[in-house]
Amino acid sequence: MVLVNYYPPGSGMGMHVDEFEESRAPVISLSIGDEALFRMGHTESRTQPWDDVTLCSGDLVVFGGPKRFAYHGVVRVNDATLPDGCGLAEGRINITIRQVSAAPKLQGR
Ligand SMILES: O=C(O)CCC(=O)C(=O)O
User: Which of 74, 75, 97 to mutate to test the pocket of ligand 1 (most atoms within 8 A of CB)?
Assistant: First the structure.
């Protein structure tokens, strides 16, 4: 499954766990556009400790293993930080790729 989120400047996404998927395969996340302050926490709750990292256009994050079901979110998207030529006039797009089923069926079998 591929999920595309658009973030207007100044927006964010609350701390949450990606637990819709039954697969434990890593989530792959690509950032395009304005810089975002991304927060990665732990599996128990939305509270500290957490790590904050600024994601720039073109950055790819893979979260798997012990962080696959950790709380995470976007604190904020910083206005007017996107690079020329990224394809956006403002804001940020995040594309996440997730394996949904634990055992994907092979075509024709
Ligand atoms: O925008 C991001 O970097 C994170 C997106 C996210 O957490 C999600 O789609 O569940």
Answer: 74
